[in-house]
Amino acid sequence: MADAKPFHWEYTPPPAPPEVFRIEGGRPLHGNVRVSGAKNAALKMLAAATLTGERCRLTNVPEIEDVRVMAETLRELGVVVDHPSPGVYEVASGDVDWLFVPLEAAAKMRASFILLGPLLARFGRVIISNPGGDRIGRRPVDLHVEAMRALGADIEYRNGYYFARTPGRLRGTDNQVYQKFWTGAKGWSGWFALGAPAGGFQGAPAVISRNNTVCNIYVRGTDNALWQKAWFNNAWHDWGRHNDGGVLASEPALGSMGPDHEHVFIRGTDNQVWQKFWTAAKGWSGWFALGAPPGGFQGAPSVISRNGSVCNIYVRGGDNALWQKAWFNNAWHDWGRHNDGGVLASEPAPGSMGPNHEHVFVRGTDSQVWQKWWNG
After folding, report:
1. Helices in 132-272 by DSSP H: which ranges?
2. How many alpha carbons lie under 13 Å from residue 118 in its C-beta half-sphere?
3. Spatial distance between the Cα atoms of 246 and 230, rounded to a whole number of angstroms
4. What is d(CA 266, CA 251) in angstroms, rounded to the nearest whole number?
5. Which domains are present in the chain?
6. What's the sign of the alpha-carbon dihedral 52, 56, 60, 63?
7. What is the pTM of this model?
8. To pair with 89 at 20 to 30 A between CA atoms, which of 54, 103, 215, 274?
9. How far apart are CA 165 and CA 160, in angstroms?
10. pLDDT tens-place string over residues 55-107
């Protein structure tokens, strides 16, 4: 009988013999090599097949787990997916009766999120989970979401799911800022383009007119920096980048506390509200943090400066309540919660009808617009 192996608490695998690939050149190559289909192309084609009710046939599809997961996800939506032979898939999306991509599918594969665009374009609504899959570096999905919003979709993120819908069909866009204006003498102008930053921008533009001779447009560039286009001296000037290290995680929110002052608020990548401001006397400040409500907040901050001494920031808290941070008596004060039972389904939109009045509008959970106001 052979001697028993010594006992160890941890298994130590036997050493593997070294392997060597030795390639000798100097000979002409000949023969045939079958090129397998690309995984990323196959997944996108499977998703794109939901854009039509006609039967689509895909060949040379790689036989890998991600493809099988995508096929099963489509079947759960009500799509007919046949696999008649190796490398061949046939997809028929005539009857899709369940526009919900569940967490179970998204957790297995990040590519499930590419169903957002096709399902939204064809059916006008979809609920899709925040994707899982391999965690290799930073792989955000915000570019998908912002692209759909730019095409007219309404997308909210709640409890780990994106709720997307569009009132009609998605609309094509050239990703420029457009303007129209009204005057008492001439009424409404037509639309005209004001271009875009180099590389484009995300979300919607924000605008502040702090007096009747200056107007500034701010956007979040695709590089997540703050970009600005200014009207002064009766002309629009070129887009400029704020090269101060600011990294935006939301569209900017603007306010003014007088004709020679304006300030910009954003959500930072650390999920705090950040501010910078400009004055005629000193120019631009740097960025500084203003914190966040306990439990954080959703989306972007909104701002109202109803006179030269008061500024209020409003956010939709992580608890879907209205939270407020106020500047008065020359100082910022702590975040406070509006404990009035209001449940927000959107970011707040504030306004003012005078130095001692302000109002806040939100989308409610019943899909109506709701308002509250304050009077001095």
Report:
1. 142-150
2. 21
3. 19
4. 7
5. 39-165 (3.65.10.10), 179-375 (2.120.10.70)
6. positive
7. 0.62
8. 103
9. 17
10. 999 999 999 999 999 999 898 888 999 999 999 999 998 877 778 887 777 67
